[in-house]
Amino acid sequence: MKITKLTVLIFSLVLIYGFSFAHAGSLSPSASPTATFHTLEDIYLRLTTNATSVEGDHDLSTTTVPVASFYTLEQIYDAIPTIDATKVAVGTTYLGVSGSLAAGGYTYGSEDQGYVLGTATGAGTVFVDMFNGSGVQTGPTNITGETQADGGLDDYNNGDSPATGRYEGSWTVCNVGNSYCGTSDTAAKVKDNQTGLIWSYNCGGLGCSTLTDDSVSLTYSWTNGGANNNLYTAQQLCTSGDHGKTGWYLPHQKQMLQAYINGAYGNILDVGTQYNNWSATEVSSQTRAWVVNLGNAYGASTVKTALNTIRCVRSS
Hints:
The protein has 6 helices and 11 strands. It is of the alpha+beta class. The relative contact order is 0.09.
């Protein structure tokens, strides 16, 4: 073997420094990497649209020129929503924010479970007050059951003023100043602000020629055979009677019952008056129709030839 100067140098280094050489193993993975990669765009869209994406692999090479879809970390940071603790339920933490919304507080205008349907800025009506108030009621001394526990008094109270503390919604009296509740029609008497329905005066005169005076309590049949109908049915008396007005219709039974709940007595009905009004609702056999008293919620089905008062309604 020919010994060169290089060979002697390498041998000397090995003796002096203990250098050694080893053969490296294979750097190839035993299996393909798992798909655990999300792009910045995936993260941005999840924050802004709640869209989910499928995890990709680690191969960042592209087969085409990348499109302009790169979001910066600043854009992603700005996309993180600000969490309002009052909108997150108690006991829940979202993005590090502990909620303060009372459990069960899914009400409008109040988080107190004892309220329902308030305004945007205040509490709603207490459930118990929907039963004509609580405690001792005012009213005629000859009527028993004047406490909440005994059921309270009805709205009519034998012609007296409505019971103190009864549930009563908001009503608007229609007059020239508010263009008769926006209808420009003098037949409009009052608007129920809970339902948006506008109620007329009672029908008066032959063929409901007037809708202007509740003191005139003329009666009509549900069919067109009544003495005051002038060949109109009860529904036609509202829609196209001799009053010459448009936009009115005969209210449904449940619209009338809701109006009673909202405080029709003293609003739709003048204090001290009550009538059995025809509704547009028939019984399932279609041989009878329903009447409702807006003062005390009395309701019954009766033959269509019976005579009852008529009051009309409209939505605008």
